[in-house]
Amino acid sequence: MKIYQIIAGLVVIASFAALPMLAKAQSLLGSTVSDGAVAKSTLVQLDLTDKRPSEKTKIHRYLFDAFGPYPIVGSAITAGIARFMILPRSGGKAQWVIAGDSYPTGV
């Protein structure tokens, strides 16, 4: 039970550590520069029309989402958590060892 509390604590700490990276500062329109001058900004008209990605971009994004670093790391984390959840119930043995022990008795 103690290991689950440690893992949950580490996940919470990692989540809070990632929050500052998501936050970005915004400049105010009337903000002053360090020498006291008022920063001037020009309004730019943004082009917000939707543009469909090309076939090459679609394939690149699909391959990155399917086989990139994020799916690999996600699978490794999931496997590690599953491994920690299986070990205490199996008395410290791996799951396949327990399943392999019962096979010859059933045949």
Helix fraction? 55-70%
Treating each run of at least 4 consecutive H or I residues as one helix, how many helices? 4
Shape: flat
Overall pLDDT level: 74
Distance between the termini: 37 Å
Q: For the CA atoms, what is the radius of gyration?
A: 26 Å
Strand fraction: under 5%
Query: How many β-strand runs?
Result: 0
Find the structural class using helix and strand composition: mainly alpha
- Uncertain runs: none
H/E topology pattern: HHHH
Please describe the biggest sheet, giving its number of strands, its sense, and whether it closes into a barrel: none
Task: Explain how this protein is built.
This protein is mostly helical and 107 residues long. The protein has a domain at 63-107. The protein has four helices and no strands. Helix 2 (55-67) packs parallel to helix 3. The protein is flat. The mean pLDDT is 74.
Break the fold down into its secondary structure elements and pairings.
Elements: H1 2-22, H2 55-67, H3 69-89, H4 95-106
Helix pairs in contact: 2-3
Keywords:
107 residues; mainly alpha; 4 helices; flat
Please give a quick description of this structure.
With 107 residues, this protein is mainly alpha-helical. 63% of the residues lie in helices and 0% in strands. It is flat.
